[in-house]
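Usage

Read records sequentially. Each one opens with the input sequence:
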Amino acid sequence: MDKIAIIYTTFLRSELAMNTISSIISNWIPNSKLFIGDQNKIAGKIYDVNLNFEIFSLPFDCGLSYARNYLINKANEEGYKYCLITADSIEFNSIANLQPVIDFMKKDDLTALVGFKLNNRVSWEYLMELVPGKHFNLIKPTETIEDNGIKYTECNIVKNFFLAKTEALLNVPWDNALKMHEHEDFFWRLKQKTYKVFYTDYFSANYIDFKPPEYLKYRQRMYSEFRKIFQEKYKIKGWVKIIK
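and closes with the structure output:
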């Protein structure tokens, strides 16, 4: 069975973090290790003698992109070839055997990641295309394949809950300048590298929408400061347009 690094980031949501970390402990994925990128100083609050985890204290407001890149490099140093990307807003609700998904990913070197279902969150599994000077089109995918009884839909972008090859994440790291507007940029650059992305509802978790005032103060920059950086990077005036 292949080892999995669970990449977990948290910022200014300590109460939520304790709840979602507890859900990971309760629904522990076999042969895995939890890598926690902590900007909340929660280290003294987490303990479980049977849990394989490590907490890394990161600079305050270092950004989601920086935190993920940091943890993935740590996971790579310890020999983890697969990373499950999750965060303090994602609550696990079941134990999953992810080996069949890993076996599917192994069949094609270009398959970078497989996204999973996130309950209570809008659909974000689409094909992507750049409309120069305007925005990105997000187009509903239609290509579905089945492997070992699991259905996969090929797309270009999924939500921030996915299993990825560590090598692909090292080849296409998140842009640290887009610290809280990293999503579309990351997946578009994956596509430019000809990596393949898939989605399946084989595994799911719950999205918890909890944004306390101290967190919102920083998050709101996503729609002003960091979206402008994103627009300048791609020379577009908008953001995304969903094509049904």
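Summary fields computed downstream for this record:
- The chain has one domain: 4-243.
- The first helix runs from residue 14 to 26.
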